[in-house]
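I would like you to sit down with the record closing this message with an eye to the fold:
=====
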Amino acid sequence: MMGMTLEQSLHLLAKASYFVAALLFILGIKRMSSPVTARRGIVQAGIGMLVATAATFALTGTHNLGWIIAALAIGVIPAWLSGKRVAMTDMPQMVALYNGMGGGSAAAIGAVELLRFSAAGHSPSTSHLVLGVIGALIGSISMSGSVIAWAKLDGRLDRRFNFAGQQMVNTLCFLAAVGAGVALVFHGLDVRVIAAFFGLALLFGVLMTLPIGGADMPVVISLYNALTGLAVAFEGYVLQNEALIIAGTVVGAAGTLLTQLMAKAMNRPISNVLFSNFGGGGEGEAIEGSQKPIDAADVASLLYIADKVVIVPGYGMAVAQAQHKIWELSKLLIDAGKDVKFAIHPVAGRMPGHMNVLLAEAGVPYDLIADMDDINPEFPNCDVAIVIGANDVVNPAARTDKSSPIYGMPVLDVINARQVIVIKRGRGAGFAGIENALFYADNTRMLFADGQAAAASLVSEFKAIEGGGSH
C-alpha cells in the first residue's frame, strides 16, 4: 500500500474485507443446507457479518460513531437476549419478525438516501434512484408483511381477514405505491411524495398478508425472506457496498428457490401465492364414520409386536414439547429391534425445516429422518405409523377430495400404513381449518392426550410390556 494515504489504505482494506465477508456468507448458507453442517454454517455467516461490520467502521472512521454504536446496541442486545430465551415453538414468529427487520433496514436506507438528496436539492443518477426506489418498495412490503405474519403465527391476529373487493383494493394500493415511486424518479424528490410512497408500500404489505391462512405461512415466510434479500441487494448498489450487494443477492436467490420448493410442496403456483387469496377454499366433502379412541396400553402392545414404525411429527409436538419423550420412546423401540424412522413433510410445522430443527434439538440422528418423497413408498410396509401433532400434511383428502381446499397438495401417505395412531389433544381441525379424513379411517385409532403426556405414557407402558415379557 505504498504511496497511498491512510484513508485510501483503509478504503482498500474495507473492500477486501467485504469480499471475504461475502465468501463467508455464501459458504455459511451452503453449509446450512445440511443439518450435519448447519451449525458451522451459522457460525461462518456470523463471522462474515462481524468482518463486514468491522470493515464498515474502517470506512466511516469516527464519523457518526455514536450513532453506529447506539444502533448496534439496540440491535444486538435485545436480539441476543430474546434469541437465548425463545422457545422452539416460537421460532417461526421470531424468524418472521427478524426477517421483517431486515426488510425494514433496507427500506430505511432507501428513505434516508431519498430524503438526503431531496434536502440537497439534486438527484443521483437515474439507475441509482430507480434501484433505491425499488429496494425501498420491496423492503417496506417485506417489513409490514412480516410483522403481520409474526402476529398471525403468535396468535395476536385472526388467521385470515377478508372483505369484499379485497383483491381490487390490494391492486390499487400496489399501483399507487408504484406510481409514487415513478413520480420520485421522474418528477423530483418531493418529501410529501416520499412519505406517500412509503405509506402505500407499508400498507400494501399489510393488506397482502392479512387474508393469508396460517397453513400457508411457510410459503409466506420464504417469500418475504426472498424480498428482504432483494431489497438489501438493491440498497447495497445505492450505497456502493459490495457486501450488501452479494449477501442480499444470495439471500434473495436462496429465498426465491425455497419459496418455489414450498409452493410446489403445497401444490400452489407462485402466481397463486403472489396474486391470489390463497389459503382459502371450501370445506371439502363430508366425512363419514367416527373417530375411534385407543388407550396408551393398547398402543404400546401394537408397538411391541410391530417390526417397522414411522413417526410423523408436526407443530402440535412442538407445542407440547414432546420431542424428547418421543425420542426416548424411539430409542426403546430401536433397542427392541424395531426399524424406526421419522417422516418430515416439506411444510411441516410453521416454517421450512421447523421439524428437522426440533428433532435435532432432541438428539434424533439425521439418518433416521426421511423426507416425504423417500418415506411415502415405505408406508405400505409400515406396521404402525404414529402421527403426533401433524394434521393437514397427512390428510388423504388432498389426493381424493377435489372439493377440498388442499386437493392436489402432496401429503405423507400415512393412511397406507397397516395401523395409524394419531396423538391429539382434541377433535378439532388443523391449522388450515380442514377436517382430516385420516382420523376417521378404518385403520386409524386416536390417542387423545397432550403430546408429552401421551409419549410419557407410551414409554411407561412399553417398558412394562418388556419387563413382563422378560420373566
Remarks:
- Residues 9 and 366 are 47 Å apart (CA to CA).
- Residues 277-282 have pLDDT under 50 and may be disordered.
- The two ends are 82 Å apart (CA to CA).
